[in-house]
């Protein structure tokens, strides 16, 4: 092609073969493996994982104007090459044997370039094989020569009658501009059998075309209609678009004057749709209303090539001259609107691609969504602008004939790019952590593997719910066990369980039943009482001497509130030595040796502390940490004199210790002031222990300052340990909100609110939102049982609030509720709750077979025909394991009333379940209701 | 880490939307082949197509599920200028068209059900065309900006409360994260970049009462240009903690914030399902956009508290579907133009 233009053509039959056609024709094979690096000179990387292997080339070909690839599979790889003088020659290369891998093939192949007059045929031939099938080879080297030599503009094979080859020519006097050759026609030479492939062109040339169309015209573009093989559209004389039928080549079937006569192409997937361009204007046509284009749009530069996408209907691809990008337009929806009201909308857009001349880009337009007025066409919006090769102006591009949205763009034979245009991928998350996205016409589903629960709170919340997190109203610490791996939740659960413990004991402050939302600040009355006049007694506490050495007396502060708050912190006061010792022993056994030692020191029991440390240093409980021995030794050397070396060493060396409690011990002992700032600011120490220490050692004013400051810090950081201080006050809700903001863990927030017993009575919107959202989340995951248990816990934690019953059973006759215990009729109650002292529950179960108020019989079960409310006869005791004594249970589910919401027939739940295990229809004779089919939830459960 | 499994959707043309129902057990896809397919997950975890029917006479842009409280209800919108509501016939796999909203004069590009607490309301989005009289003033398509509207109970209308000024490029998708009781809303905007905006409602003055327009403190939490070009779609997971986005580079990426609110990419998946190591390594590859796309962003509305349900446009037509009992109220005067059956 002139001007260094390079055309690129995919093989119509072979997925991985293409040619480039410039001053020479090059054959490439696309390979995905990178094994061809040993031939770097012949391998070209065209995408991330694809390489074009150069298989054959010819640089001796001159004056090539265009090439066309034979559209059918057999004979394979036949090419028609058009030349500047109008001659057309058929060439072919041989398909390489599939058995041989490509590099070796490359070595084995010899490239034979055959010059036949001006035309050049290139043939790839294996060494072993002969030159090929003689039947196919008849075509090789065949030449078609128009009457007068002039430039060939294009070549086009007929897609159906593939022996027809069209050649478009420049104007020459009165000659036809469109010449259609029949490649099988035998009138080319007088003697076919004598013809040799290697003979001169005179023998192989055909001069008599099959059809000649358009005398005296010049033809610039041509396209067959793929669905109607005898018709074609052509742009002639730079003025007209004409549609011809081969059955009448004299007169065009349709003709319309328009400037856009170049590059006419038919949408392979909808042959009524055409596109053409002229200069910088692109027009889209519908053959059904051919007098004017359904859509025109202006490019900023002259257009070099347009092409319909071969796999997606209505996608037109436009490349402008000197442009680095290809534009894609989606034309499809144009047609729909035009059919409906062509007057109102001139066009509706779709997707189309534009390649401007000498431009590095192909633009992809989505015209579908363009806003187009009645007559004036607003600027069409570009859907895509594909710029495959940087800023280098593209020469041409080609859609892959079969692979979806695969595009090969070429700048020069040395620079090509194979790419896939990605469609918009809609995507959606499912609540079950699946991410699904659609890719073209397929749906991809992404199922998560891997440790997703570690990754995101959503999965972790679901797992916790499945493990029963927040559903253990009695055994509080079980909840903490479920989240044992999450350290930040441990403090919270400790607080919840300690609040429970404190409230279980008769507390003097709570006269209105248990209050579960207490924090230290509530106990110290910081919220209620602004002018806090808490007066604590100063107590002077002696060191318990370890070996007779008497240290100075320390101040402890005590009050009722303080000891309550200390209990909330989990500290057992040393007023009761046995309890205290058990407490410390428990801590030691649980591995919290340092904490036990620290508490012993804080309560001025040096000997106890030393004992704890040395015993666990030797024992296996702490993995025999020998450094504790050293700590014990250091402690033993404690000297109260403020200027001793011990103290100074302590002050500096304690930061080397890794355990915060050990640091706190030394900070406490080395502390000069009365206010123990070093201990209180030991931030790695648990909040409860710091608070407990402050409660013991700080005077009232200092204590308040410290607690306020600590609260602010914890609220600010959303640290759930701060719940100990705030309780579920409004400050505590702020803290929870902060925590939710940081972690999105509404599960814990909702459960905290529930366990604090203020879930339903709280006026704060935030609490209600958390609970609402958490329940909705459980709904969304279809964790119905968990949701019900959560609701139960909510009910149990807040005894003041009554949930009204949601289902009533009323008598058909008198309309009274069957469960009403009116007029002393107590049977329903007994039916509901088994007497725990009864020897056998079966005996005690009362039968009610009639309405308690009007004494009319209850309806009958449609399966066993017994009266409802009656214990079914054939139900053996084994089937109904009686609830354990002391656990009041509802009557077994099997005996419940159940009915179809549509036909109102029903019976004992057990019988009904049994019936519908095998049937779909209603058990009542004559009822046509397909109860089971209606109940989609049941169906889903059964299927 | 994440393995993608391919399902053959068997649509004859491009799939435009995928939507899960409330429980994630059903999935609906819509396509340019004018059909909607409903998929159900079997016990084996496989998805089976249980219904496929022609819904419109044009490309179906979006499909969305109503809350299951209202039954099995789907809404679709299409290029054929209608939006339709479908309900599954009890006990069968037929989906019946319950209503068709025909008063758009252009392609209806998006449809969304309101959050459950607002009842069965539907918001539709259409292209503002020749007569901008029925769509919102100066719509999103013009400047590609994102506007946030809030429904006022007192005035019974939608007020524009904020304009997101951080995003100037054409917007392809917006998506609110499920709020979950956080004190702020997260809004993902798919434009040339993917941006995440945090909207923190400033506490209302108690004196102003419920009439005041709520103010938001807007903060751009993160901007990502890893998609290298247009970002088409964005979607939040169930807790609003992981954001997934798809872009013109053919990759699906997942984003997540750490404890310090730093958003990071946690996974890159290739659009065709294979696990991608990353985007194209050949530096020449770039896909750029030209003129502004005319797909206006679609309004999304999610909010737990109900105080600030947000959409890009006041719903052109709200709809109440009235059934026997228990359905949202009808106000004769206000709702007389609404469709019902």
Automatic annotation (TrEMBL), chain A:
UniProt keyword annotations, A-Z: Repeat, WD repeat
The keyword Endoplasmic reticulum is assigned to this record: no
Family matches, as InterPro entries: MIOS/Sea4, MIOS_a-sol, WD40/YVTN_repeat-like_dom_sf, WD40_repeat_dom_sf, Zn_ribbon_mio
Every GATOR2 complex protein MIO zinc-ribbon like domain range: 811-932
Domain MIOS-like alpha-solenoid span(s) in chain numbering: 461-697
Top-level taxonomic group: Eukaryota
Keyword Repeat included in the entry's annotation: yes
Family (UniProt): Belongs to the WD repeat mio family.
Annotated protein name in UniProt: WD repeat protein mio zinc-ribbon like domain-containing protein
From TrEMBL, chain B:
Coiled-coil stretches: none
Record keywords, A-Z: Lysosome, Nucleus, Protein transport, Repeat, Transport, WD repeat
Entry GO terms, CC: lysosome; nuclear envelope
One GO term (biological process): protein transport
Signal peptide as annotated in the record: none
Protein name: Nucleoporin SEH1
Species this protein is from: Batillaria attramentaria
Extent of the WD repeats: 8-40, 224-256
Keyword Nucleus part of the UniProt annotation: yes
Record carries keyword Protein transport: yes
Location relative to the cell: Lysosome; Nucleus envelope
Residue ranges, annotated region (Disordered): 274-323
InterPro entries in the cross-refs: Sec13/Seh1_fam, WD40/YVTN_repeat-like_dom_sf, WD40_PAC1, WD40_repeat_dom_sf, WD40_rpt
PROSITE patterns from the UniProt entry: WD_REPEATS_2, WD_REPEATS_REGION
Superkingdom as given in the UniProt entry: Eukaryota
PANTHER family for the chain: NUCLEAR PORE COMPLEX PROTEIN SEC13 / SEH1 FAMILY MEMBER (PTHR11024), NUCLEOPORIN SEH1 (PTHR11024:SF3)
Biased composition (Polar residues): 282-292, 300-310
Family from the record: Belongs to the WD repeat SEC13 family.
